[in-house]
Amino acid sequence: MGANIKRIAVFTSGGDAPGMNAAIRAVVRTATYHNLHIYGIRKGYEGMINGEIVRLETRMVGNIMHRGGTMLKTARSERFRTPEGRQAAYESLMAHDIDALVGIGGDGSFTGLEIFSKEFNIPVMGVPGTIDNDLYGTDHTIGYDTAVNTAVEAADKIRDTADSHDRLFFVEVMGRHSGFIALNTAIGSGASSVLIPETHLEIDALIKMLKKGVKRNKLFSLVIVAEGNANGGATEIAKLVNEKFDHYDIKVTIIGHLQRGGSPSSFDRVLASRLGFGAIEGLLAGEANVMCGLVNNKVCYTPLIDAINKKKDPDQDLIRMAEILAL
Ligand code: ATP
Known about the structure:
Elements: E1 7-12, H1 20-33, E2 37-41, H2 44-50, E3 53-55, H3 83-95, E4 100-105, H4 107-120, E5 124-128, H5 144-165, E6 167-173, H6 180-189, E7 193-195, H7 203-215, E8 221-226, H8 234-244, E9 249-254, H9 266-284, E10 290-295, E11 298-303, H10 304-309, H11 316-325
Parallel strand pairs: 1-2, 1-4, 4-5, 5-10, 6-8, 6-9, 7-8
Antiparallel strand pairs: 2-3, 10-11
Helix pairs in contact: 1-9, 2-3, 5-6, 7-8
């Protein structure tokens, strides 16, 4: 199958993630090296439906490696969820004789790819681009490392003011369904505790831990909260804690969209380059309807259906370590 591929289109979809540009660059340059025609679709599935498809040349992806965001723009598309929307998208691709697709995004984008490839028998390749790191079949997703670095840098700054005023800060990071960012931000910033969607820490248990800290002369505290934690976000948790424990002056910081922006870390640039390169070489070798990921530092291909449906949770050993190191 791979040998028949002549024209590939690449797009970014879902939430933006730092490193998406580096992945686009790698896709375009690897495809060009193999004498393929490469096209860029603007604004994800929405642009596919609207026919926003342009030819990409090697020089057009120069000087983007270090930039956050995505030069192809990204979008969420309700129309692509409908058979009519996908039919229109297929017709746009056929107008350019596109015979394979590379989609850079998260599990929602991969669900769209999987459905589309089954309906229209077109080979597709997913590249994991999401700050959440919640995809099965890759140890890291593009953008995750940068997002954690941004959150740790912010937590370090909050630590300075928490220390000066003897305050308790609840710092909310992104992760509606996944605690990877929160857990690693907590470890990296030396926080007192972390609340993530995968484990359910009761408010009373959190208060008990904070009280222990007070007994050990902890003058200030940082608690990292994933936005999708079962008890609510940082604002709700701070309120619940404040009702029962008034030792500290309590403050809340929500880091929010800062975590999506900025120049990608060197780790994300290298990861994105490897996965973009692996995506094209994989398609040419006959890999189809898979996600190109990195497991144990080796590029590998996982069926999209597994990347979407199988769950990847934070390592229990890391969760235990974070608790011990926060003593
Ligand atoms: P992130 O992890 O950053 O949120 P994502 O890829 O999971 O990224 P979504 O908004 O979930 O982001 O999905 C992106 C797009 O994929 C949707 O806007 C929609 O166009 C398409 N998509 C998602 N699920 C489906 C589906 N079941 N059928 C068809 N298309 C879908």
